[in-house]
Amino acid sequence: MKPPVPSRTLAAELTHAEPGTEVRLQGHVHRRRELATVSFLIIRDRSGLAQVVVRADEIGDDGLPPEETVVDIVGIATANAHAPGGIEVVSPVVTLLTEPAATPPVELWRPALTAGLPTLLDNAPVTWRHPAQRAKWQIASASLQGFRATLDAAGFTEIQTPKLVASATESGANVFPVDYFGRQAFLAQSPQFYKQQLVGVFERVYEVGPVFRAEPHDTVRHLAEYVSLDVEFGFISDHHDVLRMLRTVLTGMTDAIAMQAGEAVELLQLRLPSIPDEIPVIHFSEALTRVGAPADEPDLAPEHERILGDWALREFGSDVLAVEGYPMRKRPFYTHPQPDDTRWSNSFDLIFRGLELVTGGQRLHRYGDYVEALTARGESPAAYEGYLQTFAHGMPPHGGFAIGLERWVGRLIEAPNIREVTLFPRDVHRLTP
Amino acid sequence: MKPPVPSRTLAAELTHAEPGTEVRLQGHVHRRRELATVSFLIIRDRSGLAQVVVRADEIGDDGLPPEETVVDIVGIATANAHAPGGIEVVSPVVTLLTEPAATPPVELWRPALTAGLPTLLDNAPVTWRHPAQRAKWQIASASLQGFRATLDAAGFTEIQTPKLVASATESGANVFPVDYFGRQAFLAQSPQFYKQQLVGVFERVYEVGPVFRAEPHDTVRHLAEYVSLDVEFGFISDHHDVLRMLRTVLTGMTDAIAMQAGEAVELLQLRLPSIPDEIPVIHFSEALTRVGAPADEPDLAPEHERILGDWALREFGSDVLAVEGYPMRKRPFYTHPQPDDTRWSNSFDLIFRGLELVTGGQRLHRYGDYVEALTARGESPAAYEGYLQTFAHGMPPHGGFAIGLERWVGRLIEAPNIREVTLFPRDVHRLTP
């Protein structure tokens, strides 16, 4: 099936084809429109859509291939102001590269997908073909590129750490047990311990990878498996250095979306986030007052996050707001306390358009502080021996953060449910496709 | 602990410091050398090493900090032809950023690490700090960058697919079972099904992520969890298009190592691979003859791969050799047969310096062919319903490959054991650190 000349032209390149020359398109039949005297095939490939005009006498005995069939088309490029890119293809020779396709579970050619979420998810391998769906993931993919490019430029080293671990990272709850050669292992809830340990090696590290939370609640913002964008780096003064780095990273991600996924931005009518040069910060205790919550409330409720998000947009024109100083008793043992008042912590959550997107902060870095913190929580330092070894052997003051990819994209496109921006979501009810 | 002026100078930047000016270094004490009248502290940071000279009268009551302690040093940059980069720091004010460090399990300052593999692995968070160890991962990290940059430039979309799956991908063997909310799930052995399905969406996709093999054998080339570099793309003629893309990718990875990890290449005295413009190809049946194996042998043994690797280097000056046409009965059901002789397949293994590094090839793309292939193997197409849906709805001819990151780096540096190039290896015996 080696294609003879001409070689393939992508749909987006068709606009540059010389009218009158022979071109070859390859792709899915996105739309078949059969009129009395003339028919149209809209061909979809990775670059976009192209229009092919078929006269009635050019249609063979089998008729025109149905939608989603994969075809090879050789025809003549012709100017037409109404075609995408101003060029369409006429006098086509249509070759099927596969069987005529079965009718898709949803009409992929309609500009808007009206199917409900369960239909979209149950048929994900096919429904992601819809241009509006595909655009969502193109936002995600550009975000990943921007994340890495920003950190590479800042002297970070990419790491890849194990997802099979001997004990729970963050807490005993919400871990998936694995039968590991007859022993019990767990799926990592985060690369937290590893990224910290590797700050001792590379000083600045990041990782993009899956994390696993056996989250029993079925909410619009939780997944059992999601992509975590983890950053950790040494030689900081406190969590404000971490927040500054987070700002640089979010800006780099936003710029990459604008640069590399411009069409997706347009298609989704996406409003790119406004991130000020300095991210506004509010202390947790002040945030409680602002939302009218009792002063001893240990956490912010989703409704509180929404109020604070609105306030940040109104007050600072900012889509992001950092809430610093979360109570130590609600933060993991490795959290660095706020030096002048150790009820509070040198950590923050970043609220993005009313939803918690990032958790970050400064960590403890002295061995003695770890032993003390674990003991105070009634935990045995011996249970963390391997981890603590790193600190006994010298670790710089450090901190970091983790961004949930799906939450980022979800809030960017203001999707009501995080599953809409996840290729193949996993939750308490869903393990397929 | 906000550092006052001067701001930090990285070790590698010290060479540009104006002699006589004040500079600030921050890092681990890599080496402490105490002589009668003068002592030296070698400071290690993410960029390299710097030398600090301490006169006897500059040492406080606590003495000089032991190796691996993290310090902040302010002193005067001074020319010294014998110091790294031609500049050292004198008249230092040394501030400890943590407690004096405990003695490391291995002497990290020695040019060569002489400890055995178990010691290295048991103490990985600390032993990776050794410059020669660190260099190994810098090769890996540069490889990942080169992999992605090459594919981004070729119009590929990065994907992230679930690692929790409802059934085994490749075969029923060697899967890790997971307790998934009371149901049984498995850890994905590869993203094979997902990457194929997403070829229907994005046409060209890649993924970097963990894969899991419950490999019960303790060998120098197997891991229970490793990083798979997966590629899949549509509109190919046959597996030779896949092999050409693989060549482009391997060349991009090699170039990235040369560009971004030059110092690591030098430190490890690494010979970068020689990859010809066209990768030499030998048919499986011919390979059997060449290694003197029986004609009905279904696979190549490690010894055969070594012989073939040597032959390719001798014959073609190539570090890589593709063996195409592996017997269909030993390949997974989605493998495309060799059109002129269906005992053989349109698939290949790539041997890199005598070790299988990559498996790739053309896949079936017609729904009918899948039903037939599964039925012929005594499997029920119904069991693959979700996967097969993609093909019923139209899929282009396609293929792809998967590179094991650790095998790539292992053969690059000619490590006798793959665990040496894995940050935190997992195998039948090892689940920590």
UniProtKB/TrEMBL annotation, chains A, B:
GO terms for biological process: aspartyl-tRNA aminoacylation. Residues 192-195 are annotated as: Aspartate. The keyword Kinase does not apply. Its main location: cytoplasm. It catalyses: tRNA(Asx) + L-aspartate + ATP = L-aspartyl-tRNA(Asx) + AMP + diphosphate. ATP binds at R213, A214, E215, R221, H222, L223, E356, G404, L405, E406, R407. Keywords: Aminoacyl-tRNA synthetase, ATP-binding, Cytoplasm, Ligase, Nucleotide-binding, Protein biosynthesis. The record marks P84 as: Important for tRNA non-discrimination. It comes from the Bacteria. L-aspartate binds at E170, R213, T359, R363. One of its GO terms (cellular component) is cytosol. Its EC number is 6.1.1.23. Residues 147-433 form the Aminoacyl-transfer RNA synthetases class-II family profile domain. One of its GO terms (molecular function) is aspartate-tRNA ligase activity. It is found in: Cytoplasm. Aspartyl-tRNA synthetase with relaxed tRNA specificity since it is able to aspartylate not only its cognate tRNA(Asp) but also tRNA(Asn). Reaction proceeds in two steps: L-aspartate is first activated by ATP to form Asp-AMP and then transferred to the acceptor end of tRNA(Asp/Asn). Belongs to the class-II aminoacyl-tRNA synthetase family. Type 2 subfamily. NCBIfam families: PRK05159.1 (NF003483). Homodimer. This is Aspartate--tRNA(Asp/Asn) ligase.
